[in-house]
Amino acid sequence: MPLTCQTLIQTYPAAWEKATTHPFLTGCHSGTLQPVQFNTWLVQDFLFVKAFTRMVGRVLAAAPDDHIDVLLAGLGALKDELLWFEAKASERSLNLSAPLQPTCQRYCEFMASLAIASYPVQATAIWAIEYAYNQGWQLPGPMPAPYTEFADRWGNPGFTDYVRLLAAQADAALSTASPDVEAQAEAAFLRVAELEAAFWQMAFASGDEGMGR
Ligand code: HMH
Fold first, then answer.
1. Domains of the chain
2. Most buried among 44, 66, 89, 128, using CB within 10 Å?
3. pTM for the whole thing?
4. Is the CB of residue 9 below 6 angstroms from any atom belonging to ligand 1?
5. How far apart are CA 25 and CA 20, in angstroms?
6. What is the pLDDT of residues 78-87, one digit of tens each?
7. Mean pLDDT for the stretch of residues 114-142
8. Ligand 1 pocket, 137 CB below 6 A?
């Protein structure tokens, strides 16, 4: 039986749960998150999305003809998303040319390393990255202001459909993959899960420095 996205989720429920549930997200839901925590996430996620956009561009270059349309739509949405991040940062007077924190840096390096991976591995990673936010922002339930629009960006029905199309494309690519490529796709999925959990923790922990905690 070929590897599929659904198999990955079912095989590694604990890793996926850590990727998609975190006190950062429940803190948004309950209103207990501190502004410094959210602002750190906002700036680092802008830097992340810039690197992710470059990754999707590279994957587009490797994609079969019938996968171009979905990836191109994804890139169109990312163009809008980068402008939206700039607007949100400006509302909060945040500096988007801040340095990457080590966890964000690690995630960006992982995405850069996928340039030499084969297409089924790349397609699996893109799906996992988008599905993590699609689930993570929705799982706590409706988010209060000012987080509503953030939850909606990755939880809206159009984005959910896009993630389903990404899963279908990853499944199609995996259906003819060798056992070695399957193993690489599985490793990429687990790496995304680990980096997602670390990314939430990076933002959640900010503000703790030098406060004796
Ligand atoms: C860390 N993972 C992270 N940020 C994002 N914006 C997404 C996934 C979804 O694109």
1. 19-202 (1.20.910.10)
2. 128
3. 0.97
4. no
5. 9
6. 999 999 999 9
7. 97
8. no
